[in-house]
Amino acid sequence: MFAFVGGDKQLMHSHDTIHAALELSSAGANPTQIARRLGIPRRTVSDWMRGALPRSADRAAICPNHVAGLGADYVYLLGLYLGDGCISSHPRDVFKLRIFLDAKYPGIIAAARETVAEVKGGAAASLRRPRNCVEVYSFWKCWPCLFPQHGPGKKHERPIELTDWQTTVVDRWSEQLVRGLIHSDGCRFQNSGTNWSWPRYSFKQVSDDIRGIFCDACDRLGLHWTEARTTIYVSRKRDVAILDEFVGPKR
User: Fold this and answer.
1) Which among 77, 216, 83 has a CA at the least distance from the CA of 156?
2) Is 101 helix (H, G, I), strand (E, B) or coil?
3) Which residue among 68, 144, 221, 241 is buried most deeply as judged by most CB within 10 Å?
4) What is the pLDDT of residues 33-64, one digit of tens each?
């Protein structure tokens, strides 16, 4: 039997072989090393690593291998996705993850690309958009498995809840979720008044559920927060100092 992937004719491989290749990729092996170890063509491995899995591959069976190994990088990317990300479907059950970021923060754009590549185990790309916006994107069949909040319509118009396995990962790396959310929909700024001025963090999000996810993460970190309509503020000197350790001003 044959399957057509990326326009090339490839031998059909078992789910176990695909799982093994993706696991080796996640462990840092390159396509040549994986191909030699598993006895399959290097080009086939390269296709799998960039998300072009055979039609016969059941995405639900492939993705648990990735979910089991998710850590801090994934939690940061989850924050970026919840803030300013989306997933769109493409032919052959491939999906495109898109993160929209402000072009004036090249450090955050670079961090987003590196994190997408780390989570996927393959390269990510970026594209300059109008209105001072940069889109960081990557194609993969597994994105909906890693971000089950994906669905039709805008995120603030539908329920957004973390799954049990996401909550387990977020509980361990709550600071990375807060970092990702602030990098996408928040900022550190100078709050000033008569004869006083000190730094303050804010997170603005129209989705009640996503604001709640941010506040829950702050609670786990012991951060005091206040709310004004669609904006969450972290203002106390001690709490700002804690956020400065892993967020800091946008760059």
Assistant:
1) 83
2) strand
3) 144
4) 998 999 888 888 887 766 665 554 545 445 65
